[in-house]
Amino acid sequence: MEAFVRSEIKNGIGTITFFHPQSNSMPGTQLRNLAAEIEKLGKDNNAKVIVLKSEGDKAFCAGASFDELIAIKDIDTGLKFFSGFAAVINAMRKAPKFVIARVQGKAVGGGVGIASSADYTFSTDAAAIKLSELAVGIGPFVVGPAVERKVGTSAFCQLTINATEWQTAQWAKEKGLYAELFSSTEEMDKAIDILANKLATSNPEAMAMLKKVMWQGTENWDQLLIERAGMSGTLVLSEFTVDAINKFKSK
Fold it and tell me: CA-CA distance, 15 to 183, in Å (whole number)?
């Protein structure tokens, strides 16, 4: 299967599904398409709530595409690539509808950022998380504000510094990243359907107001996340990072 991002609206529920054959990793085009679909459903009055999910039963999202990272040769290209994650996070933040994330498997780097940017995140026991950026010579600069907002500074520092270690789904739930945890995708999907249908019949104006209140204090993220993208875009050009990414790819 080729990579895709697609959306549909049914009974007031807008569902966005993304897929990439490399563990649902995120090349720049995929990131831009995902941000565009979130913005589109955010503006569509037929969608009262948004469910964000990935295809497959293993990885939710493996984060940045290593193939694309290693191909970055100048600061402008690096800024453009990492701005893709900024666009997705800001689209989720600014959508005037609640975004529900369905995390069925492991989330790495940018995948943790996406899960953290949802307003309500469901997961299975298989949904371990890791911020691996430091291990390849960069840092979780763009996704950092979203992750720290959700799990707190202490847990964010733990994830960032111990970059090669997985944290369990139970750990993520205890820190507030996951709202609900299930032993199977079937149980999780039933719970998602129940909540999404409730929200689809709730007052859209009230939900939009609540969304604004919940994200109060993040109004500077349009600028902040682009600045953070520049930090990552600069580091990815360093000899240390290029060598680290190549070693990681060869494992």
Answer: 22
